[in-house]
Amino acid sequence: MRWKNVKVYGEDVGSRAQSDVSTVFSDLYKSARGIWRKNPQKEILHGIDGVLNEGEMLLVLGGPGSGCTTLLKTLAGQTDGYSKKKGAIRCSGISITKVMERFRGSVVYNGAIESHFPELTVGQTLDFAAKSKTPHQRIDGISRTEYAKRITEIIGTAFGLRHTFQTRVGDDFIRGVSGGERRRVTIAEMLMTRASVTCWDNPTRGLDSSTSLEFAQALRVATNLTGNVSISALYQPGEALAEIYDKVTLLYQGHQIWFGEIDDARKYFTAMGFEALPRQTTAEFLISITDPKSARVRQGYQHRVPRNAEEFVRIWKSSAAYKQMLSAFSEQEHRFPEDDEDSYQRLKDHQVVEKTPFTRNHSAYTLNLGMQFLITLNRGYQRLLGNWIYYLVMTTTMVVIPIIIGSMFYNIPEDASGFLSRGGMIFFSLLFNVIINFAETSAQFAQRPIVEKQNSYAMYHPFVDSLATGVVQYPLKFFNVAMFSAIVYFVAHLKREAGPLFIFMAFTYIISISMTGLFRTIATLVNSMETALACTGLAMLPLAIYSGYVIPRPSMHPWFKWISYINPVYYANEAQMAVEFHGRKAPCTMLVPSGPGYEHVKLANQVCAVVGAKPGQAFVSGDEYVKLSFDFEYSHVWRNLAVCIAFFVFFTITSALAVEYKKPASAKSEWLVFRKTSKGSQKGNGNPRKRDIEQPHRAFELDVIAEEKRESISIERSNDIFCWRNLCYDIEIKGVPRRLLDNVQGFVEPGTLTALVGASGAGKTTLLNVLAQRVSMGVISGDMLVNGSPLDRSFQRRTGYVQQQDVHLAEMTVRETFRFSALLRQGKEVPVSEKYAYVENIIAALGMQHYADSVIGTTEDGLSAEKRKRITIGLELVAKPTLLLFLDEPTSGLDSQSATSIMKFLRELANAGQAILCTIHQPSATLFEEFDRLLVLSRGGKTAYFGDLGQNSKIATDYFERHGAPPCDPTANSAEYILDVVGAGATQTAMADWAEVWKASPECAAVTSRIRAIRAPRLQNKYQGLDSKFQFNKRIDPEGKMEADKTTDFATSWFTQFFAVQKRLFQQAWRSPVYLNSKFLINLGGGLFIGFTFFHENTSIQGLQNKTFAVFMILLLCLILIVLLQPRLLVIRDLYEVRERHSKMYHWTTFVIANIIVEIPFNFVISSVGFISWYFPVGWYRNSQVTPGRGLFIWFIFMLYQIYHTTFAQAIAMVCPNADTAAMMTILFYTFILAFNGVVQPLASLVKFWHFAYYVSPFTWLVSAMMSTGTHEVPVRCSAAEVNIFQPPKGMSCGKYAGAFVNGTMAALYNPKATKNCEFCKFGVADSYLTAVNISWDDRWRNAAFMAAYICFNICLFFTTFYCHANGVKSVFGGWGKLFKKK
Q1: N or C: which end of the chain has fewer CB within 10 A?
Q2: Does residue 1035 come out as left (phi exceeding 0), alpha (psi in the -120 to 50 range) or beta?
Q3: Could you tell me if 953 and 929 are in contact, meaning their C-beta atoms sit under 8 angstroms apart?
Q4: Rounded mean pLDDT of 870-891?
Q5: Could you tell me if 1285 and 1278 are in contact, meaning their C-beta atoms sit under 8 angstroms apart?
Q6: 1244-1266 pLDDT, tens per residue?
Q7: Strand, helix or coil for residue 1197
Q8: Residue 987 CB-density burial (10 A; 0-12 exposed, 13-18 middle, 19+ buried)
Q9: How confident is the model at residue 319 (pLDDT cuts 50, 70, 90)?
Q10: Which of 882, 876, 886, 796 has its CA nearest to residue 839?
Q11: What are the TM regions of this chain, as residue ranges (predicted)?
């Protein structure tokens, strides 16, 4: 492979102000302007050259923002996120463009983020990768299955994964293998592609140094055997790891300043005038050269070394090493000329040998379409079985809901009184099968990155996986729909004939799978989950409204009537209702006139008061009823079946095509975002940094901005010593007890920096969590003491815990985040001004003055990884942790320059008096020297060593050498040496049982004696009869003042906590324009759509029904708003759970109250817009009886409903682990309360058993209050189809004949003086219609009170569910004991 003068460009956007609600119009203008006015181009890579021959490995090094990721992606042909690329990249003389078109799987790129199906096991994941790349011709002619099995076992053994083959891969929500093991799965999967060129972006992230070295060695063996080329960007490579690579290239601000052998690079830069620190690895030395703050210049070379990237490039291009590279380039160019036909034919021949028969000639895939389909189909079934709980819940839902729906319409009468119920049941069944597929949206988003990655590996066509996924689900969906249909069909007592049953089932099934295709298509075409949820939610509105039942086609307005013609639900609804009513002659239950005084009236003088009835008939034709009411015809059934099948095929094809051709979301040019009012964006060097298009885990500066000099750190020094002794931690996994920590002991003193290292899975993070009191399950035994006394309630408040994950609110600035922590975690006796002044000191100490007012953002679009890590550390420092600071892998995922910066900062903290305990994975020798003390854990959570490190780690290495370990080379990395000795690698074993060695050592006895000495004061106080707890908690400070009580949980008052949390939530909401604008557009668009669907409804019976459905649909619209709210709430909840609860920032009740209040003002404004958009088009005001006061009352009820559905969504979300589950739970509950509100099935027709559900449903009272207020005393005017015609006896007028009956039933007679064709309308005033559906004008205020009561219930439920989630459900109900136990 060779590349010459490679340049890559992205949009230069610089910095910008943060968007919020007030910037919506300016943001729209900027977006529109961007259509014709492009941003200027920024050159990211400046003419990069390189050449690699067969079997060579290249190491890419560079500081933050140097362009390492951009170079890797460009060499791998993945340049979709960039605006322009120049230069030539050739593989064996063939351009990278042609390679990606024809041989895409031969050049692959591995990012730093793991993307796997979490429900699959490790073995299944690797087996699929092996099968997808199994060649057609195999050694010894073994079968494809045997080949895949052997490859899987070989790769699994090489990376120490054999023991995990039956364990699920897992993710953040599904328990699976550890993070390090998951990383190994990612590496193994890519190696199975057998690609000729592999590009690795930080493949060793999260791995210990021994496992990282084993990975590089395996890669070395693979390249040697196959002659392939490997290119890796590593962040903190050790010396042994770097030496495995043949070549190294060094990037500096997008410029190349070296390419050649790594030893020659050290000599080159040393001759230039730079020198390395003692024990500094070559990689660290090279990266330090690109950082003016870290580079060390030899004496006498201060004015001779280059000062910037351009000077480095000038010297590089005039060097002998550059000429040597050009010579190698020319040599390869001679061997493999541009577009060399021999090379191209050789690759084609190799590909032909690998390809299976019936594969297209120009296909980049190894397998043909049929075999791709078979392996993805098999994986689909494995996913189904792996995620069986979800599908079991889905199947259970499809059994429970039809029982509810069927029993709601139980045994519908055969007479005409059952007409409305039959139509309602059919409509609601279809509606539920539309709503239940709403979960397909999130499912599509979850699998998108996995499919995109595997497609880049040329494993299979995405459309094949889409079809296979559907085929896997179709049988299960058929089973679910069959059960659903059978239950609801027979319980509701629809036609007891086989044909109608199967037709009912067929249409329901086709609609269900059609919605799967539709929702998956929408989810594929958009780039964000919020947009997808909003679009799919809005799509459900026309599907439901224009199904032909809510508003019949004759009543549809022309501007929206066309929707019914492209709505598959309409065709299914028409067919199902036409079949159900076909041939039905329903006996009439009410003849007009009838009753007292009409006992002897002849049938010829009566008519049934049902649409479709004919004078003189005691029955109603079902065909006439559906024809006149809905314009449905039985002759359309088979046509509709064909149309529905066509829709299914169409949506399946669109889903497959969207997956196949929709390009991954382009990486945006990233930038710093400042608050509009901040001065931070104008400080310093003028133009804030610009960032290139890099992976989100990296820092992306292109213009180096020298960080401000850090101020000296001044913290409150503590004299407290924290120790632990005989610490054990036991849990149960699938009923089997397992000990994760086994008699661990140690201590941490003020002013010391203690490292915690060990093998992957040895229990490092577990020990940290146990010591920090952050575990909520299992049994902990042993002692944890401060100055010899048990831990008190203030322990968590007095300690800081820096997690490995940098979890922050994306909308907040750095300064605001720090102030929030300081305000709530420093004591209430400290003035706020003093707290904020301390925040500024910490900002200066962190060197973040330029970035203090920048928005933190997300990992994809925000501050760099190093800055986010500094923020995580700063959050704990501003709290003034007087006792201890815990850190979990603070340098993981950072480059060596950033890691050095972080560790130096921690060293300064320790020197200032802070006690620090820190886990670390891959420490370099220079980083390791920063530590004072070392705790080594061996497998099984046992202590292998605890004690001082000593100069150059001499004390620790001497200990292991004395007990049988080989001598440590003076130039070796002591940390790597110790990890190798204890067997930390994936395939390594320990040289001895170091846990037993430690127990018998004098060092262990010395530690035990020291811990006893720490406990001695407590024992002495106890002997003297003193209250040691009081002595610990109440002490006199040096100035003679009594210290604050340390027995309280929180540092500040409840009201201080509440106002701080409430302010932060309002700031977050205001700065979330996507969320609020989505709510606004849903309210405005949905309100207008519903309003103009039911535009200026008249006062006919159908008009009253349409107004009822207008209310019903506005309720359904709010389901979309709920789905938008819950993910945001869960993000805040997770932040509280992960950090703020354990840190004792604020009481859990403030979280609940603040989250309720923050939604109210925004809902008030936005929902008022939605109300206006709905109220006036429907025409509620057009009747003189509906005064403005009534309209105001309807608005008031609507506002109550906004509070109701918000608190309802919040309460449901608190019991769910993630947004997907919350959405499913919400749909289930919403289905229940929508079903029993009297709209679809009136109370009079409802089975008595379910009457309680009618009264329990809050929507009953909501619909009642709004309908009674909007239609009270409004006269009814029946339409022509609704007027029933009957003939009076000869000699009598209509009024004389039927006047008494009309007056007694509050009906209307339109021609009382006529002597024939009497026109009867069964409702004369809207109140009689309302009475028929159990609605009364007199109950409107009572109904409003009920809504208020439901809101109070939701709030109480929110409190309860959040408390249960935060404290463990079992602890709420009592009798089950606490999950967290201590012995």
Answers
A1: C
A2: beta
A3: yes
A4: 85
A5: no
A6: 888 888 899 999 999 999 999 99
A7: helix
A8: middle
A9: very high
A10: 876
A11: 388-413, 419-439, 474-492, 498-519, 531-551, 637-659, 1074-1096, 1108-1125, 1146-1172, 1192-1215, 1222-1243, 1344-1363
With CA atoms as reference, report the closest residue to 451 among 132, 73, 204, 202.
132
Per-residue model confidence (pLDDT) at position 1023? 39
For the record, the structure tokens of 170 come out as 């897992």
Reduce the DSSP state of residue 1192 to 3 states and report it: helix
DSSP state of 601: -
Angle, alpha carbons 495-496-502 (nearest 5°): 80
What is the rounded end-to-end Cα distance, in angstroms, of the chain?
63
Q: Which residues contact 534 (CB under 8 A, 6 or more apart)?
A: 1078, 1081, 1082, 1120, 1124
Both tokens of residue 167?
Answer: 């364990």
Tell me how far apart the alpha carbons of residues 825 and 797 are, in angstroms, rounded to a whole number: 7
Which amino acid, one-letter code, is at 1000? A
Question: Which distant-in-sequence residues (6+ apart) come within 8 Å of 418 by Cβ?
Answer: 412, 586, 1245
Cβ atoms of 443 and 437 closer than 8 Å: no
Residue 763 identity: G
Q: What is the tens place of the pLDDT at every residue in 627-681? A: 999 999 999 999 999 999 999 999 999 999 999 988 765 444 345 566 664 443 3
Which amino acid is located at 527 in the chain? N
Residue 1020: which residues within 8 A CB-CB, separation 6 or more?
A: none
**Do 525 and 509 form a contact (C-beta atoms < 8 A)?**
no
Lookup: tokens for 1114: 């506005």
So what's the pLDDT on residue 1170? 92
HEC string of 85-139 equals: EEEEEEECCEEHHHHHHHCHHHEEEECCCCCCCCCCEHHHHHHHHHHHCCCCCCH
Handedness of CA 332, 337, 338, 340 (dihedral sign): negative
Structural contact between residues 186 and 113, judged by C-beta atoms closer than 8 angstroms: no
Count the residues in the chain: 1383
Closest to 1193 measured CA to CA, from 1254, 1270, 1098: 1270
Q: List pLDDT tens digits, range 1311-1320.
A: 999 999 999 9
pLDDT for residue 1017: 58
- Read off the pLDDT of residues 375-397 as tens digits, 9 standing for 90 and up: 999 999 999 998 887 788 888 88
pLDDT at position 36 is: 65
CA-to-CA separations, 1190 to 1062, 1100, 1187, 1333, 1348, in angstroms, rounded: 34, 21, 5, 21, 19
- Inter-residue contact 1269 to 1193 (CB < 8 Å): yes
618: three-class secondary structure by DSSP: coil
Q: pLDDT digit string (tens) for 1033-1080? A: 333 344 433 344 455 778 899 999 999 999 999 999 998 888 888 888
CA dihedral 298, 300, 304, 306 (to 10 degrees): 20
Q: Tell which residue, 662, 668, 673, 721, has the closest CA to residue 695.
A: 668
The rounded distance, in Å, linking the Cα atoms of 518 and 470 is 12
- Sorted by sequence, the CB contacts under 8 Å of residue 839 that are 6+ apart come out as 815, 818, 819, 822, 878
Token code pair at residue 638: 């088979």
Before 337, cis peptide (omega within 30)? Answer: no
User: Residue 589 corresponds to which tokens in the numbers above?
Assistant: 């239950």
DSSP 289-352: HT-TTT--BPTT-TTTS--SHHHHHHHHHTSHHHHHHHHHHHHHHHHS-TT-HHHHHHHHHHHH
Residue 273 has pLDDT above 70, yes or no: yes
Residues 579, 423: Cα–Cα separation, whole Å: 11
pLDDT at 1022: 44
**1189-1209 burial, b for 16+ CB within 10 Å, e for fewer?**
ebbebbbebbbbbbbbbbbbb
Helix (H) or strand (E) holding 838: helix 832-846
Domains of the chain by start residue, with CATH: 2-10+42-342 (3.40.50.300), 369-586+634-661 (no CATH), 722-806+881-1029 (3.40.50.300), 1076-1274+1326-1369 (no CATH), 1277-1322 (no CATH)
